[in-house]
From TrEMBL:
Lineage: Bacteria, Bacillati, Actinomycetota, Actinomycetes, Kineosporiales
Protein name: ClpA/ClpB-like protein
Keyword list, A-Z: Repeat
Organism: Kineococcus rhizosphaerae
InterPro entries: Clp_N_dom_sf, Clp_R_N
Domain Clp R, residue spans: 2-184
Amino acid sequence: MFERFTKPARAAVVRAQEEARALQHHRIGAEHVLLGVLATPSVAQRVVGPVDLDTLRDLVRRHAAGERDAEALRSLGIDLDEVRRRAEESFGPGALDTGRPRRRLFGRGAPSTHVPFDRSGKKVLEDALRAALSLRHNYVGTEHILLAVLGRPEGTAATVLREAGVTLDRESATEQVLAEIRRSA
């Protein structure tokens, strides 16, 4: 599948794994792929415009912590954000983060910190290929990955984008992508 990916799209996928690892998440989800795309100079980055990656990371971290859990705790009078702030104040950043990528052994016991894709991460890459094909492109670029994210407005990645103030929908993003491709040609 990755043979059709442009260099920036491949770089974004590599960056997605780095983002998941840095956030100490066990899997690469669509939200990590989005972080990778927006951290990579590319068509998608130009279409979205300036975005604070630290804000996006915080939003991804919050969603991973589980909004349902936070809501349940709030109903008991416990503010999870305040608990996290105090724990990090006392014990340092990430004090409550528990997830670590699993280490696998290959060959003669060499450790690997490979982080696999979860269902949403795989799906966004598959949908990116579909977006490229629907635009009659013979490659998959970061712009197609962005369109795939926007094509799942209920997903964590699209939600994080909206919460960060990005108001793109798939239709307007497609128009902007095509305009950006024409400008670059």
